[in-house]
Structure formats: C-alpha cells, structure tokens
Amino acid sequence: MSVRIRARAIGAPVDRLDGPAKVAGTARYAFEQPADRPVYLFPVQAAIATGRITGVDTSAAAAEPGVLAVFTYHNAPKLASTEDAELAILQSGQVAFRGQFVGGVVAGTLETARHAASLVQVDYQEQMHDVELRPDREDLYAPALVNAGFQTDTAQGDVDAALASSAVMVDATYTTPMQHNNPMEPHATIATWTDHGLTLYISTQGVHTLRSQVAAVLGLDLEQVRVISPHVGGGFGSKAFAHADVILAAMAALLVPGRPVKLALTRRQMFSQVGYRTPTIQRVRLGAGTDGRLTAIAHDVIEQTARIKEFAEQTAVASRMMYAAPSRRTTHRLAALDLPPNSIMRAPGEAPGMFALESAIDELAIACGLDPIEFRIRNEPQADPESGLPFSSRNLIACLREGARRFGWEQRDPTPQARHQAGWLIGTGVAASTYPVFRMPGTSATIRAGADGRYQVLIGAADIGTGTWTALTQIAADALDVAVEDIDLQIGDTALPAAVGAGASWGITCWGSAVVEAARRLRARLASQHGGAAPPGGLEVTAEMPGNPDAERFSMHAFGAQFAEVRVRADSGEVRVPRLLGVYAAGQIINPKTARSQLLGGMTWGLSMALHEHSVLDPRFGHVTNGDFAGYHIAANADVGTIEVHTLHEQDPYVNPMGSKGIGELGIVGAAAAIANATYHATGIRVRDLPITLDKLLR
Ligand code: MOS
C-alpha cells in the first residue's frame, strides 16, 4: 500500500510565479498594454486654491498640429452622478483645490498634448482659501464615523478622574505630517470607448471596485465597462479607489471614440490627484499606578479632510484594543480644508496613531522606571478592552520576548545617552505593532477542473506587488490537494468573478476564503458525481466567500514587535538606522518569501516615515511645494541598514480557512515609534513631531 504525501502548498517559500515575466519585462503594466493607434491625454490643472473660472481660451491649444480634442467644463461630457465631488470634474467652473483638473488635451503624441495643455488659457476669480490645520480652530467637528466604519469617539469609565489621581502620568502631543502615496508606478490608464462600452487598462487595487465607481459616475451599466489590471507597480491605498484621472481619461475616450487614450500621471501630479495621508495632531494622556499598570488612556486626534469630500482617518482606533486600562477615551476631530481629498495610505489609522501611542507608552514606562517591554507585558489585556471579546489569537508578548532575544535587548543599559562611538550616540528602542483582520463581503471564485488534471482558478483579485499571483495559487493548490504547478490562476479582470480589491490587508482573507470554498465544493462534486476525477468536458464550480460567525465572537488582530537601533551624530544631529528587527504573529504565513517582502517593505516605509517623508504645504498657495522625488525624500537603499523579519508560528482557527492574517500593513505600524524611542535612548531628546530631522536634535 502506498501513501501519497504531498508537502502543503500553504507555507512553502514558492518563488513569485510572476517573477520571470517581471524580470524579463514582459509583465505588462497599464501604460504598456497593447493599444492600436493610441492617443495621449494631458490634464489642465487649476492654478488657484479656490474660486471659479471666469474665462477659458482653448484656441491656441486647439490650433496646435496633432491636437485631436481640447475639453474644459464648457464642452466636457456631462456626468450621470456628481455625488462623489472628487470624481465630478469639469461639470462647473468651480475650483475646489489647487491642481484640480479643469481640462484636458488629447493629441497624437504625449509631447504635443503636454505642450498644448500649457497653452490653454484659464482665467479665475480667486476666493480666500483655508488650508491650515491648527488645534485651536473653532470649526473642528466630529464626523459621523471614521474610516472603516469605526466609531468616531469611544469612552469607558471616568478618564479625567483616573488621570488626575494616577501616580504617574504622561500628557504629550504628537504630530505627524502630510504624506503622499507614491507607488513606483504612477497612476496610469488606457481608456478606449467603442460601441460595446468602455475598456480600461488601469493600474488599480481592485478592478471591480473601480468598475462600479466609473460606471456610476458615467451612467453606464456594469457590463459596459471592462477593467483589466494584471500587474500593478505598487498601490498602498491610492489605487484602492478611482480618482479624477480615470474620469478624465474616460471623458477623453468619449471624445475620440475608437482611439485608445493613454494617461499616466506625472510624479508631480501624484501630489494632488490620488489622495494623501492627513497630518495629525494627537494628544495622548496615559495614567499609571506605581505598579506600572495603566489606569487611563486618552487619545484625542485632530486631523483634516477635504471640504468637498469627507475622509476621516481612524487614527485612535488601535488605542482602543492595545492595552488594558479601566478607563479610556478616544476622539477624532476634523478640519475641512480647501485641499485635495485625502484618503487611505498604508495602515491608515494605525500608522500615525501607533506612532503616538507607542511613543507615549515608552515615555510612561520610563517615567515608571520600567523596561518598556516589561511595561507592555504588565498591561497586556485578557480580552479586547473595549468590546470585551476574546482575541482569536494575540501573541504580542511572544513577539516582544522573541524580539528581545534576537535583538540582544537584555544587554541594554536603559540610561539615555549611555552609548557613544566615534562621535555617534547609539540607542535602541522598541514599539508594538498591530493590524486588524478585516473581512468584507463581495468576492466569488470559480474553479474549473479540466480533464487533463489541471485547474483553472478565476477571481477578480489584484496583485499590487504583494505576491497575490503566488499566494492565491498556493491556497488553491492546498485546498485542491494538488501541486502548485497544476493551477492556472487568472486575476485582475472584471471578466472574472467579482472580488473585493486589495486593501485593508484583507485580500488574502477574502479571496482565499472564496477559493477554498470553491475548491471544497468542487472536490465534493467530483467525489460524489465523477469518482474523484474531472469528466471529459471538465467541471466548474463557483462559490462566494462564506460568512464567518467567529468574526462576531472574537476580536481579530495581528501583532508584532518592532526593534530599532539608531545612531545620532553628536555634532550634526544626523540620524542613521543601522538595524531594524520586526517579529510578527500574523497567523499562518501563506508564503514566507513574499510575506517577508511585505513586512520588510512595511518596515522600510516605517523608517521613511520616521526620518524623511513630509509633504510641505505652502499655506499661501495651498499646494505641496516639494511634490517630486527630489524634495519628497523616500527612504532609499543608502538610508536602510539591516532589516530582519521574523514571523512566529501562530495558529488561529477562527480568522479564515487558511488561518492567515493580513500582513500588507502590519510592518509599517510601530516602526516609526521604535525609531523615535531609540532616538530618545540615544540622545535623551524626545522628538514627538515626525519626521525626526536633525534640526530637532540640535539643542
Ligand atoms: Mo490599503 S491603505 O487599505 O490599500
């Protein structure tokens, strides 16, 4: 008797299946998709921060040889829905922010379109704009909810009384700057209008989400819009939803039917068109007893939204579940400003919020005379502090302990400014990381068993560089109990079964659950009706992501511990980060190789957030002055030292059939706090205002 043993496909470090095509340059990104006789679109952008257009002269632009169409609100197609004010471009002469699209030029070459766009003469009547976020504004307001459907404010117990009577207290305000999503591949579209409708090759995190938005704005049936996006050069939130560039491209396509219209945003346009991370002003008050146990947590956030479209970042949500404390309060207040709409950016909420909380926890641990790891262990909650639900799994302490062991934490002298070496002050810091396990209905998968023993897996999922092509193939192989090589996965097309987009780190939970369900049903039918093998004509099964009753019974989050070593040059304040370590508990890791890349990338961005990224807004003009890669520095190779990623074996039978938790956003959360805490340890200077630039360390 022979027993077949196949290594589980889930958990194997499978090389990226799309790797060879990407290395060879044959993996097509949106702008490179085949287009027959393409034309090029270049936008015209508003030159004022707010006001209205009083006159437009397109004659010089239209007279340029090679120009096929010039459009402004005078002649632009009327949109069916203007409900989403960000997408309702060219419908009136109103200008809501500097850089807003007010027109477009279509020409036979990109150079002609760009030059002609510069010839469009627009006159304005300017109004006073208001773009400054300040804590003393009288018009700060509480939104109905904050992003991802969280409550705006929460409260438990008498926080003020608990703070007033606490033996040790921290009351500090932390600020994080405006930051802009800048995936390597800018937002790009090829839009073609034919008798059948609109085809969009586009760089997007979710083809079906984008289709719904575009169809609604243009007044088309879903079947009239096809969205194709097999490869995406980074997303991070900016490509989760449609932005005005897609609508501008669709409008242009309507004006030149049959001709594919190509639009790729310039890097500079990325700083006004695709969302950004709000700046935050976060007051954190923590109280503790002499035993180092938290008595109260208050986290009050002030941030901004666009006047034309509300987005309220959920900055304080992690403070609701991280630590045990009998009293707590979290609040979010918004200023509505004459700026482009802000939106989600890798770990919206947790990334800026945990910088504040984890810095404050470090400050409080020091004030209590406790090691920051020991302090966190003492304040580990037994259940979710606000909901009271048990955690499906929570291994923060294990992450902290394993990280301490790997990092050499026990050799640390807690005294600030204790270590010097050749003119550098050396410090180490730690912070916690967390990210929720989100799930969202709306995903189906089809699996076709072929008579040849191969399986086609069809799902409108996205790979934004994360490794979906590989990880979903592994999940399918595992669920079908076949080899990875026997799976043919297709994603990134609205012709495939509908799926939620890549966002909120929920991709694998939603898509994987649907694939596993389809595989389960397919195997049952193959076994009961066909003796286990596919019939000559093949067999196809489609299934939706099933509901998960455990999601109501448990609080579900991934956790991690971030460790940083920081060197600060004593005479110049220059900060270097030679070493980062992240230890994570994120359930079953589907593919350790692609998972490591995700976490490494998150930590790298955390370093970038800690030291570099800062969109500088000029309040006089309402625009970002450093809107390019010369002025907006993103951590480059030379900024990054050693980064080590380690994942714990965590079994969580409740989160989803794979037992996995999302890892796309976990790696950035807490990384900036670990670096700030290490900077304090090195220098004795507490920087509460990101980024940590050298001027803040020279006293
Ligand atoms: Mo992520 S910011 O939810 O795409």
Mean pLDDT: 97
Helix fraction, binned, reads 10-25%
The biggest sheet amounts to: 7 strands, mixed
If strands are numbered along the chain, what order do they take across the biggest sheet?
Answer: 3-5-1-14-11-12-13
Strand content: 25-35%
Number of strands: 28
Low-confidence regions: none
How far the N terminus sits from the C terminus, by CA atoms, comes to 78 Å
What is the structural class? alpha+beta
* Number of distinct helices: 15
Return Rg in Å: 26 Å
Coarse shape: globular
Say which molecules are bound, naming each kind only once.
dioxothiomolybdenum(VI) ion
Explain the layout of strands and helices.
Elements: H1 19-24, E1 39-45, E2 51-57, H2 59-63, E3 67-72, E4 94-95, E5 101-107, H3 110-119, E6 121-126, E7 145-146, E8 150-151, E9 154-156, H4 159-164, E10 168-176, E11 188-194, E12 197-202, H5 207-218, E13 225-228, H6 244-255, E14 261-264, H7 267-273, E15 280-288, E16 294-306, E17 327-337, H8 350-367, H9 372-378, H10 396-407, E18 419-421, E19 424-436, E20 444-449, E21 455-458, H11 468-480, E22 487-490, H12 507-530, E23 539-544, H13 550-553, E24 557-569, E25 575-585, H14 592-611, E26 617-618, E27 623-624, E28 642-647, H15 671-683
Helix pairs in contact: 8-9, 8-15, 11-12, 14-15
Would you kindly provide a brief summary of this structure?
This protein is an alpha+beta fold. The chain is globular, with a radius of gyration of 26 Å. The longest helix has 24 residues, at 507-530.
Protein architecture, described:
The strands form seven sheets. A seven-stranded mixed sheet has the order 3-5-1-14-11-12-13, with helices on both faces. The longest helix is centred in the last third of the chain and has 24 residues, at 507-530. It is α+β, with helices and mostly antiparallel strands and 699 residues long. The chain is globular. Helix 8 crosses helix 9. Strand 18 and strand 19 form a beta hairpin. The chain contains 15 helices and 28 strands. The structure holds dioxothiomolybdenum(VI) ion. The site of dioxothiomolybdenum(VI) ion has 11 residues, from loops.
